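Page 47, continued from p. 46.
Same chain as before, 382 aa.
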Amino acid sequence: MYNALSRLRLELETELQQAILPWWPQFRDQQHGGFHGLIRNDGSIDPHHDKGVVMHARFLWTYAAAYRKYGDASCLPVARHAHDFLTGPLRDRQHGGFFWQTSFDGHPVTQRKVIYGQAFAIYALAEWYRASGELPAIELAIDTFLKLENHARDPLQGGYYEACSADWSEVVTSALSEVDIACAKSMNTNLHVMEAQTCLLAALTERPHGDPALIARVREALQSLVTVHLDKIRISPAHLGLYYDADWRPLSEHLSYGHDIEASWLLTEAAELAWEGTLPGRVREAALVMSRRTIEIIAAHGPGLIHEGPAPHLDTDRIWWVQAECLVGLLNAACLNPGDGFIQAALDIWDYIKRQVKDPVHGEWFWTTRADGCHDDQPKGG
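Result:
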């Protein structure tokens, strides 16, 4: 098994360094800044498509993290390009925080403060600070964190609301996308706020900056959100709900299997940092239960991990990010319990990705692979 894991690491690093990281820089918009807002499956672009905060934050995080890991200087200008658009046209200099999206030439399109988007901005800026040491990045991440604490956090029921008005003065019921339902709170938003707080706390403890009381405040927020996931967002030992009202009453019954396994490793990472290296037993158990359930779903519907369920909400499409999160989650579970079949399940997912998800013609990964192995012509980026 050691040889299999060594081979897996080599193949994953090869995929990242030779296939993924070199693919995206070609889509920088050299005229208007940032990256083109729509990259089709065949690699063609729509130069007039809107540009989003999440897309640019993900680019910034990715190339900053790659530079921090490998020291590859070619990552820095790509990260800088994303950084400049994120902190330029996408930043709301009047009210603070970030716009959800702008036009292709940088004019705000959606001005309400979508908390999911704010979370990704914090995540990216904190990682850029870890890579570059640039103080304005961490100061902007802290300012955005405080905006969420002061305006989007529920002090009574816990967690964070979906959105606020443009000036942060009121909470707004909102749907994150056209496939989501309008709600006061969602699993997806709170999961990524937790992810952002984890990266922010790591940045502040690695490169101390500011009052120690700030670190304590970020740590408290992260501990609280880990607890909210376990006590309110989980609707069973193995599954998270998706949409909630302000009092955490579920608004739907279907499950997102990719988010369940994603949460298993994000909760582990968050809790280990929040409790200063000590993983609470209930977090460990939750991660293992979610991971075991994931293996059961793969056994029932595989190969690969299907999108959503159960019946009548069954969606057997294999989405690219679901496979990626599944791979990470199963490897995390293997670290928690090496003898539970998680390593082989992770190797099987990677084999499925290589066979069915990688695009051998146009590069990168297909968005969707159907149960019959065919692919939908959905964008690679947007």
